[in-house]
Automatic annotation (TrEMBL):
Species the sequence originates in: Microbispora hainanensis
Entries under Pfam families matching the protein: ABC_tran (PF00005)
Transport listed as a keyword: yes
GO molecular function: ATP binding
Domain of life: Bacteria
UniProt keyword annotation of Membrane present: no
Matching SMART domains: AAA
PANTHER family given in the database record: ALIPHATIC SULFONATES IMPORT ATP-BINDING PROTEIN SSUB, TAURINE IMPORT ATP-BINDING PROTEIN-RELATED
Keywords: ATP-binding, Nucleotide-binding, Transport
Record Gene3D superfamilies: P-loop containing nucleotide triphosphate hydrolases
InterPro entries: AAA+_ATPase, ABC_transporter-like_ATP-bd, ABC_transporter-like_CS, ABC_transporter_ATP-bind, P-loop_NTPase
Descriptive protein name: ABC transporter ATP-binding protein
Length: 276
């Protein structure tokens, strides 16, 4: 195959499979004191359309940097990133990002319904519909994340877990193909966290999304994902790409007793602890 034909095939495959293709992408930051800080050594990674992939590693290993590069919120110092056939150079239209801190995710002066409306109006291939149709769609999205009846409330009137559900509903309203989640549940209590994990799994399946999920919680990463990318300390790049070959549906209690999970937890834990 000629190079031109190979490139062409790669592009059409990219469109068809909606892959994230990271090719030697790395990031060095210029710190305020003028020193260069390694955010992430160059990494290469392909994520298939419809995959659920998590990124784990110690604090400062570059998890958020990797996600922000894919989200187009940072420019790589080296290498390239593509979402589908498009080279990332700013936030891709087909991707939505949910932050760790729900206080930053939502517009506090807008009602829950209007926060979701924002997602609807600024969505992927958004088309104008009447206000009544919009309201109907917003109510459906809120129902989907278990927040029926909160349309006219303000974010500050909701618990942290509920606010994160609003952020997810708003992201879904934008009809993304790719959902990027940066430690979205780290600030909520353990029980709400389990429920939110199951919500994300349901949404992933029902909407056929590709999910890239950053967490410091190895158990969470294994429970959710088909693949867990372990990063080396201090922006050192990829230590291991671990396949989680345990079928879905998974349930919180059974999954954690599965011998395959216990083996993988041991493997990933020792990689993270040993990734120095
Ligand atoms: N804007 C920035 N300016 C300078 N250095 C930065 C910036 N953002 C990140 N860094 C540095 O890049 C490295 C990787 O940071 P990053 O936030 O990606 O790590 P992380 O694995 O997500 O950490 P955590 O688990 O603590 O959130 C760290 O050393 C961090 O201090």
């Amino acid at each position: 195959m000629t190079h031109a034909l190979e490139a062409e095939t790669a592009l059409t495959d990219g469109v068809r499979h909606g892959v994230i293709t990271i090719d030697g992408a790395g990031k060095d930051y210029l710190a305020l004191d003028g020193n260069v800080v390694r955010g992430l050594s160059p990494v290469s990674l392909t994520i298939e359309r419809g995959a659920f992939v998590s990124v784990v590693g110690r604090s400062g290993c570059g998890k958020s940097t990797l996600l922000r590069l894919v989200a187009g919120l940072e420019k790589p110092t080296s290498g390239t990133i593509r979402v589908g056939a498009e080279r990332v150079d700013g936030p891709p239209d087909s991707a939505r990002y949910v932050f760790q801190n729900y206080n930053e995710s939502l517009l506090p002066w807008r009602t829950v319904g209007d926060n979701v409306r924002f997602g609807l109006r600024h969505g992927h291939g958004a088309s104008r519909v009447s206000k009544a149709q919009e309201d109907e769609l917003i109510r459906e999205h809120l129902e989907e994340v278990g927040l029926g009846g909160t349309f006219n409330r303000y974010p500050s009137e909701l618990s942290g877990g509920m606010q994160q559900r609003v952020a997810i509903a708003r992201a879904l309203a934008a009809r993304p193909e790719l959902l990027l989640l940066d430690e979205p549940f780290s600030a909520v209590d353990a029980l709400s966290r389990g429920t939110l994990q199951d919500l994300v799994l349901r949404i992933w399946k029902e909407h056929g999304l590709t999910v890239l999920f950053v967490t410091h919680d190895i158990e969470e990463a294994l429970y959710l994902s088909q693949r867990v990318i372990v990063l080396r300390e201090k922006g050192g790049g990829i230590e291991r790409d671990v396949t989680v070959d345990i079928p879905y549906p998974r349930t919180q209690v059974d999954f954690r007793e599965d011998p395959r999970y216990l083996r993988l937890r041991r493997e990933v834990l020792s990689l993270v602890v040993g990734a120095e």
